[in-house]
User: Fold these one by one.
Assistant:
Number 1:
Amino acid sequence: MGIPRNLALAVALAAGGICALGATPAEARVNVDIYANVAPPPLRTEVVPGPRAGYIWVPGDWRWGHRRYNWHRGYWTRDRHGRHWAPSRWEQDGNRWRYHSGRWDR
């Protein structure tokens, strides 16, 4: 007879939790290269809401998916003391365009 499903699930969740304890957000980041064969459209003009204490505005951007560009609206994110936000950008790489996602830098 095998291990009961509930016990197997509990063991898997506990193991995952233990592994996550050692990782910081910077270490847990996964980079995925995204390329498009056509240039991205110009950025849209967004109305930025008034300032919020302890937050920064992350501007919207174009992302590639399902063989086309899709607009992702800007949003507020909690400020990180001692870091600054480097916004996402598209960079020409030969005859393709490479997406660099936004990130926190020191």
Note: The two ends are 53 Å apart (CA to CA).
Number 2:
Amino acid sequence: MLSAYRNPSDAFARYILGLGRYPAQIALNTPAGSLTLTAYSYDDILTVNEIFCRLDYPGNNDDRVIVDFGSNIGLSAAFFLSRNPDCFAYLYEPLPANIGRLRQNLRCFDSRYALEEVAVGHTDGVVEFGWEPTGRYGGVGAKTGNYLAVACRDSNQILAEAIARHGRIDVLKIDIEGLEKDVTQRIPVHMARKIRRLYVEHDFGSNPLEQTHSYRQYGAVAQFTNREMIAR
């Protein structure tokens, strides 16, 4: 936290003591220089800390192709895009309340990402999306008391399109509240061979991609590394 935040005392007060008003401007040190993101709640501070300080989704300076299932307000995308100037991110987020916030947080990366305002799941179609005020915990099938009908895209079709376009995916991040396990397990082996690293918000217990990737559980995040691509 001392090295990631430009104002560590404010960050500590918010993260540890729960102090501060929102929305709040959070200035960070990144390889791309100073980056200011807007946090809209204490829950957003938790996410910033998980991504930029705890490094739940480690990024490399040679990553070029990012696919982000469940982009929320753009915090993970901002992390990946700030690692180097040559990467491009494909973002998927269905919640209207998050879309404007995402675009605001990624305003300095406007030419380096493509956003589809859809959920990600097993098939193309329309699904019921449960949402709650923070925007952090909603998902397809989530029982939140508040629901929207949103467009959904087949996860494997999205991956196939990115691989056809670029030949590979360097980072696939999956945080889609309840469908992470199924979406990960249904990736075909021939497609998994083209994905360098996966970060999935799920505790698998054992490796569902054992034919292609090594696996470690880092708290609530499953981190997968393609053995063949790293060895090259």
Note: The chain has a mean pLDDT of 93.
